[in-house]
C-alpha cells in the first residue's frame, strides 16, 4: 500500500475552502432575500460572513503548519486553530439563537 504523504493537507484545505465559500454564499443570499431588513438580520448575515473569513484564515494557517510538519515528519496538534473554529461556531450559534428569539418576541 502506497502512502499519500503530501496530498491530505491540500484536500483538507479544499474542504475548508468549500465550507467557507458555502457559508459566505448562504450569508449573502440570506442578507439579500431575508424578509424584514432589521438589525438582527444584518447581525446574523454579517456574523456568517465573519465566520466564513475566519474559517478561510484558520484553514490557510493549518495548511502551512501541516505541510511543514509533513515535510519534517513531525506534527503537533494545532490548539489555536481548533479553538478559533470553536469560538466562531459558538458565536454564529449565539447570533442565530438571538435572531430566533427576536423573531419570537415580535
From TrEMBL:
It is found in: Endomembrane system. One of its GO terms (cellular component) is endomembrane system. It comes from the Bacteria. Keywords: Membrane, Transmembrane, Transmembrane helix. It is a multi-pass membrane protein. The chain crosses the membrane at residues 40-60, 80-105. Its main location: membrane. The keyword NAD does not apply. Signal peptide: none annotated. Residues 4-66 form the DUF202 domain. This is DUF202 domain-containing protein. It comes from Rhodococcus spelaei.
Amino acid at each position: 500500500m502506497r502512502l499519500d504523504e503530501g496530498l491530505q493537507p491540500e484536500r483538507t484545505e479544499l474542504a475548508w475552502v468549500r465550507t467557507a465559500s458555502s457559508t459566505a454564499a448562504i450569508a449573502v443570499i440570506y442578507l439579500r432575500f431575508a424578509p424584514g431588513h432589521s438589525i438582527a438580520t444584518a447581525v446574523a448575515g454579517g456574523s456568517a460572513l465573519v465566520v466564513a473569513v475566519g474559517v478561510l484564515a484558520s484553514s490557510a494557517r493549518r495548511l502551512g503548519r501541516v505541510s511543514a510538519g509533513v515535510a519534517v515528519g513531525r506534527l503537533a496538534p494545532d490548539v489555536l486553530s481548533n479553538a478559533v473554529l470553536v469560538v466562531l461556531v459558538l458565536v454564529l450559534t449565539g447570533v442565530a439563537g438571538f435572531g430566533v428569539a427576536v423573531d419570537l418576541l415580535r
